[in-house]
Amino acid sequence: MMSYPLISNLGSTSSTSAVTLAGLSTGGGNGYSELSDPYSIFVDLNGIMYILDTGNFRVVKWLPGQPLGFTVAGSGVTGTTLDKIGTSYAIYLDNQSNIYISEYGNHRITKWLNGNLTAGATTGITIAGQSGVGGSWSYQFSLPTAITFDQYNNMYIMDAGNNRIQRWWPGSTYGVTVAAASMSNPRGMAFNPSANPPNEICDAAYWNSTIKIVAGSTGSYSSALNRLYTPVHITFDGNGFMYVVDNGNNRIQRFPPGSTSSTSAVTVAGYTTTGGSSFSELNDPYSIFVDSEGTMYIMDTANYRIVKWLSGQPLGFTVAGGHGTGTTLDKIGTSYAIYLDDQSNIYISEYSNHRVTIWL
Predict the structure, then answer these.
(1) pLDDT higher than threshold 90 for residue 285
(2) I need a labelling partner for 184 at 20 to 30 A (CA). Which of 72, 122, 211, 289 fits?
């Protein structure tokens, strides 16, 4: 995940209100001004948003300042034909603006050429998996939940139903398992940017025999500092420290480089494992963004707020939401994804409010 510099307009008090960038009806809908259950968002260097509009089975491209978006992938209804997408939770945009969709319901990865289409979308291309057919063979997936690429254009897919990560070389017709041992219903993945060489996961074709647990313990959960309880998101800072959203313990845990299953983490946010709404607490945290200064931006889902937490501080402060759930622009609804641009503006994909808001 990229890091961005701080700016002064995210101060030490709660932001007052947001601006709705996409999804102008909080009741949801399928019009070009509407969204339904948006789940994921990608913002390019020009501020153009690509929104995974999950409930409408489409990806919407939304230009800055425009009242309407337009469909660049999917047709608005679910299906297995290549003009449609199934239930999906992750998208990826390459530097050619091609869109990759991890289709959970269709057990495949589709590529939609050049997201710079001016209007509409035609068909995608299945580049991995079998349309509508799940399985465990090397050319198949079962319920893929996440997708990313390394610097060599190798594609990595979190194959959740098979409890493994598959790597597909460019042009390949099958994948190889690079992580599988001791996984149970995995949902996300991240590269360590300080790896050497960068983004290299494993030299061997199969990692099952060499995988190492770097946080937590197989089959055991608790609030001890070397344990986790329902971790839902990880990211890394520029020094190789790993940040884990320990959802079940309502905290953020930071693990040093070279951690093993016996390594104790440092709790860097959320100091009561039962959760709460004070500035020292979190409640059902779901996502995190860490900038170049080690400052954390935390999606504190059940408190309907984004908390900014400076490195080494005992308290965070609210920079978005914090006024309960609702549809007015001083509130956010149930949300699962955030994004920071290079001006440290916060974008929130509001799942229950069917909109994307920006907090300046």
Answers:
(1) yes
(2) 289
